[in-house]
């Protein structure tokens, strides 16, 4: 296990370096001048040059990259040119919305997917299996923004059960959770559909393995063998997909956050791109990359803990 962890840590470090280079390079090749965009088309060349110097945009690329990485390493994310304040509190406040939202959506998707996937696999080829697969097709086909708008109309405007939008902060946890319920459902439905299909496929593959026939030969019922032996072995691909989905929920919630007027990370990134606030975008995208890579590392460790064969391959 130690060798496995060392290998995964080395891959994690190398991936982070490559990700930082890609993020920095993409922001540099974007058309237009950031200082000119911030000041507007009526700005004088002197004002543009002064802002470029203040932001460090006139420095060589290598120096700017080194300064950015050094700042990230010591936790100094810099100052937003558009907001005029430190970037760390801006991103921290947005994460207090995006992370709980993603966690709620992921918990909802996992609960539905594990129950529905096991149910469908246990009834392969029967009406229950067909019904679950049909519902997953609908879940995949419905756009999350359309579902979000529909739920606002039904549950917020018509029934007045939950707020239509906005976020009251975590000073009142009950109101904060209520504000995230509809966005979490809108985000979680498609993920639940994907995860259900993955769970069903992994379980069907596990049910055909030799150890399942051995378990049945020892007297275990089909359902008991499914829960005790098939499901633990089927969790490796399921956990892998869940890790990718959670990262996608954090990074891909821009539309839903705008529908519900949530001050999350996606909305902050969209506004910063519009304002050409380069440093905020770089820090935000790099944070998302760290979350994605870190989650993949944790998923790899969890899969190795479940399946010893993965650890043996690293030896």
UniProtKB/TrEMBL annotation:
Transmembrane segment boundaries: 99-121, 142-162, 174-195, 285-306
Alphabetical list of Gene3D superfamilies matching this protein: MetI-like
Domain (ABC transmembrane type-1) ranges: 95-299
Subcellular location: Cell membrane
Keyword Transmembrane among UniProt keywords: yes
Alphabetical UniProt keywords: Cell membrane, Membrane, Transmembrane, Transmembrane helix, Transport
Primary subcellular site in the record, as a coarse category: membrane
UniProt keyword Transmembrane helix present: yes
GO CC annotations on file: plasma membrane
One example GO MF annotation: dipeptide transmembrane transporter activity
Membrane topology annotation: Multi-pass membrane protein
PANTHER family for the chain: DIPEPTIDE TRANSPORT SYSTEM PERMEASE PROTEIN DPPB-RELATED
Similarity remark: Belongs to the binding-protein-dependent transport system permease family.
Name of this chain's protein: Peptide/nickel transport system permease protein
């Amino acid at each position: 296990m130690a060798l496995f962890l060392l290998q995964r840590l080395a891959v994690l470090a190398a991936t982070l370096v490559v990700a930082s280079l890609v993020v920095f390079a993409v922001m540099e090749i974007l058309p237009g001048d950031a200082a000119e965009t911030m000041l507007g088309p009526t700005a004088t060349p002197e004002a543009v040059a002064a802002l470029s110097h203040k932001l460090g945009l006139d420095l060589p690329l290598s120096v700017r990259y080194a300064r950015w990485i050094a700042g990230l390493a010591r936790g100094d994310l810099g100052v937003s040119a558009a907001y005029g304040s430190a970037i760390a509190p801006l991103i921290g406040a947005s994460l207090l919305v995006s992370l709980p939202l993603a966690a709620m959506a992921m918990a909802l998707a996992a609960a539905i997917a594990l129950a529905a996937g096991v149910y469908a696999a246990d009834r392969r080829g029967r009406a229950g299996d067909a019904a679950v697969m049909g519902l997953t097709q609908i879940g995949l086909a419905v756009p999350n923004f359309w579902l979000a708008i529909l739920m606002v109309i039904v549950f917020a405007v018509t029934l007045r059960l939950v707020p239509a939008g906005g976020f009251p902060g975590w000073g009142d946890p009950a109101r904060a959770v209520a504000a995230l319920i509809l966005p979490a459902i809108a985000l979680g439905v498609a993920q639940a559909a994907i995860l259900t299909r993955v769970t069903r496929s992994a379980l069907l593959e596990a049910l055909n393995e030799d150890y399942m026939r051995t378990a049945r030969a020892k007297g275990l019922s089909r359902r008991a063998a499914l829960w005790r032996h098939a499901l633990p072995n089927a969790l490796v691909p399921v956990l892998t997909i869940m890790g990718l989905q959670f990262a996608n929920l954090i990074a891909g919630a821009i539309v839903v956050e705008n529908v519900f007027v949530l001050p999350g990370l996606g909305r902050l990134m969209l506004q910063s791109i519009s304002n050409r606030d380069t440093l905020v975008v770089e820090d935000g995208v790099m944070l998302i990359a760290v979350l994605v890579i870190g989650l993949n590392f944790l998923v790899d460790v969890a899969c190795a803990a479940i399946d010893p064969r993965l650890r043996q391959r690293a030896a």
